[in-house]
Amino acid sequence: MKPVENEPYEDERTALTKEAFKRAFLDNLFYVQGKFPALATQNDYYQALACAVRDRLLQRWISTAAAYTKQGSRTVAYFSAEFLMGPHLGNNLINLGIYAQVREAIAELGLDFDTLLRQEEEPGLGNGGLGRLAACFIDSLATLEIPSLGYGIRYEFGIFHQEIVDGWQMERTDKWLRFGNPWEILRPEWAVEVRLGGHTEQYRDEHERLRIRWVPGKVVVGVPYDTPILGYRNNTANTLRLWKAEAPESFDFSTFNRGDYGGAVRQKVWSETLSKVLYPNDEQIQGKTLRLEQQYFFVSASLQDMMRIMRVQKLPLERFHEKFAVQLNDTHPAIAVAELMRLLVDEHVLPWEQAWDITCKTFSYTNHTLLPEALECWPLELFKSVLPRHLDIIYEINARFLDEVRIRFYGDESRLVRLSLIDENGERYVRMAHLACVGSHTINGVAELHSELLKHDVLKDFYEMWPHKFSNKTNGVTPRRWMALSNPRLTNLLGDAIGDAWIKNLDELIELEPLADDAAFRQRWREIKHANKVEFAAFVKERNGIAIDPQSLFDVQVKRIHEYKRQHLNILHVIALYHRLRSDPNADIQPRTFIFGGKAAPAYHLAKLIIKLINSVADVVNRDPAVNDRLKVVFLPNFNVTNGQRVYPAAELSEQISTAGKEASGTGNMKFSMNGALTIGTMDGANIEIRQEVGAENFFLFGLTAEQVAQTKARGYRPLDHMTPELQEVISLINSGFFSRGDTELFRALTDGLLWHDPYLVFADFESYSECQLQVSKAYRDVDRWTRMSILNTARSGKFSSDRTIREYGADIWRAPSVPVRLLSQQDVKV
Ligand code: 8GP
Questions:
Q1: How many CB atoms lie within 10 A of CB 699?
Q2: Cα-based torsion angle of the residue sequence 286, 289, 293, 299 in order, rounded to the nearest 10 degrees
């Protein structure tokens, strides 16, 4: 098909009018779902609606493909093992600019729009911050009209579904594809083969050159599934391309003919395992063979796909780095450095030096964590058994790199040991972060403090080697999903007050600033927050069966459960408040609802014990008539994107209380602040920048700084030095079995850890935290002061749009200019 030059034309099928929508909806119900209203389920209606939206997406997708093909434009490839997209329907309607019309159209057909939205199973193809960041980034890339592809894995099972049974987390498989997925398009014609295992051997090619051949042990096929990603109110629809693993052939017929049916099917089963399930670990690696295979699988498939695109566009491979800028989202895709070398040297016979030059100009690496246990290292033997050829390539990269180090740092043997791509202290490992650093032209952290700590701590030797490679790109989140879609009441108010340009340019929120002094506006601001709280309270009632008071302060901590994020610090403070109330029933305490949510990695026992403690405290506190008009505790099960959209708009206090120097950035902190919640937080990650933007007077700061944490540890941290009488009461209460029906051992692993060897310094920060919480309560009682602070948080959150982040990546790293898209219709293309 060739695009034809003429004016854009809205065809009947994809017009954005209400009438066209209703027609499309009924058409789809009939011809796609094959149902009529008497038999249709809510899910049928959802699918019919999704297909109507999808037609509009496809029109923009084709238009975008046409524009990019014509321009031959430089393209960003975002490589990520996780894309935590959240539901598509609502977001696509926002980005098409037709949310209100479609809601009306559906109502006019006699259906409940919200019920249909709720039918969508969210694609939970990520663990937390890193995966959600990838989703925000591809939204911003499309909004900024930058040609880009997201490359990842189409996991059949995403992050597990969390249930709470008797206070404990239970994991259930996430069958998100159960009813099909209307947002993806299968592209079997672009399937590629990926090899694994086996061995290498030398041979002589037709010119008698000595070369190396990889004889794989097994082969899988990667099949791409494409999801169009719309920009906000433009004609751009970029692509998220996720790979599914399949067997080359369903049956091995030679085996089958020998009568070994089981053996014949085994290959198929094994192949499909590769994209079967997301590893549910956040910030902790498990050195499992399957995970390395997954990483290599999607990276190899993606690089091969990019080479196919080069062929289609008739570009020589020597220009790979001019056509593509590849961003490595953490080290999960870092094997791409060795794979691109293999493809260029072994398969396309480029000289090593030229291939290396192309490789280094192609990749950039983002680090997302400072936790040592999250830095990926693969045992050498395991690595060799999966990727024998890549290990050779890594040895060669390492040898050349260490030669360079030797000359730069004459006589510094220990530096060689520290920088090597191979860790030789004891069992030998391949260090993926080192591979990423050596093979990339830029390296960045995700908030200012984090980038500084990378330079001076985790990646210090690389910084000394190549200071010019390092920069900071503070994270951001998309205001389309995290404000326009999830907080419609606020969006309406903002629309009345300052228009809606902020949705595309979040800095415009600054126009709100003067309104913080307008009493009538403050009143409306409060009404909106209150309405959001009422709605959320109804949801909690339905989910947890707990009645919470919308007049109380909604104090929220939602994120993965991890010791460094210190949910236990929060719950210890709740117990302290409970203790104060029980000791003095007349204590003047600001009524609060403490809301927790988050998943623990299934094998992370302490994190699961923290969940149990939160639920156990909730059980006691919520039932105790002596306090329960003033304290409530809620653990919201299965925190995910959908539940995030419910909770951020209702929150008043955002808990960002990690041990300073541990949280790389955080992005939930940004979502809270832009929705008008105030932060209680440490000097960690992006908290520091949020405080800088909103003003110290509009932020509740407590705790040790990263520097003080380091000093405290260097001196030898002794938790008991920080024991206070109140903290003593809290720990005793837990250990007495008060929250565990007399079981004095249940929480011992947790309390012993805190008392004797807590690397996260909970006791050291407890007093400062409690004191700061008193300040919070005081501020909350001054209704006007609080409202003013809340408005200023939203007004000054412009920096935290992922559009700003992506502009910075674009200018400093990718250098991929935007390519506006002209809308084509069916009339414009001829076969
Ligand atoms: C997270 C960081 O913990 C968080 O501070 C940051 O905002 C987010 O990345 C986005 O940059 N890191 C991870 O989620 C992470 O390292 N996960 C990998 C181990 C799976």
A1: 21
A2: 40
Res. 15 pLDDT band, cuts 50 70 90: confident
Residue 247 CA to residue 242 CA, distance in Å, equals 17
Helix (H, G, I), strand (E, B) or coil at 631: strand
Centre of ligand 1 to C-alpha 127, Å, is: 9
Instruction: Provide the pLDDT confidence category of residue 3 given band limits of 50, 70 and 90.
Output: very low
Q: Which structure tokens are listed for 565?
A: 């994020």
Residue 1 in this model has a pLDDT that exceeds 50: no
ipTM of model: 0.97
- For residues 724 and 732, what is the distance between their CA atoms, to the nearest angstrom? 12
Concatenated DSSP letters for 542-574? HHH-----TTSEEEEEES---GGGTHHHHHHHH
Query: Burial letters for 377-411: b for 16+ Cβ neighbours within 10 Å, e otherwise?
Result: bbbbeebbbbbbbbbbbbeebbeebbeebeeebee
Q: What is the mean pLDDT of the chain?
A: 95
Contacts of 797 (CB under 8 A, 6+ apart): 506, 509, 670, 673, 674, 690, 693, 694
CA distance 219 to 14: 42
**Annotated active-site positions, please?**
368, 559-560, 565, 667, 671
Domains belonging to the chain, first-starting first, are: 1-71+88-121 (no CATH), 72-87+122-473 (3.40.50.2000), 532-796 (3.40.50.2000)
> For the chain, what percent of residues have pLDDT higher than 90?
91
What is 721-756 written as a DSSP string? GG--HHHHHHHHHHHTTTTTTT-SSTTHHHHHHHHH
* Residue among 429, 465, 459, 422 nearest 444 (CA): 459
Provide CB contacts within 8 A for 632, sequence distance 6+.
546, 548, 549, 552, 592, 593, 594, 618, 621, 622
How far lies 41's CA from each of 38, 47, 119, in Å? Answer: 9, 10, 10
pLDDT tens-digit map of 621-648: 999 999 989 999 999 999 999 999 999 9
Instruction: Give the chain's radius of gyration (CA, Å).
Output: 28
Q: Can you name the residues that pair with 125 across neighbouring β-strands?
A: 83
Residues with CB under 6 A from ligand 1: 127-130, 133, 282-283, 330, 368-369, 374, 446, 475, 663-667, 685
**Global pTM?**
0.97
**Crossing angle (nearest 10°) for helices 129-143 and 89-96:** 30
From 368, 373, 472, give the residue whose CB has the most ligand 1 atoms within 8 Å, as the site to mutate: 368
Nearest ligand 1 atom to alpha carbon 81: 20
Neighbours of 724 (CB within 10 A): 13
Looking at the predicted structure, is the pLDDT value of residue 662 above 90? yes
The answer on pLDDT for 252 being more than 70 is no
Specify whether the CB–CB gap between 594 and 634 falls below 8 A.
yes
Among 113, 95, 117, 96, CA closest to 104: 113
469 alpha carbon – ligand 1 mean position (Å)? 21
* pLDDT tens, residue by residue, 85-109: 999 999 999 999 999 999 999 999 9
Per-residue HEC secondary structure of 416-435 comes to HHHHCCEECCCCCEEEHHHH
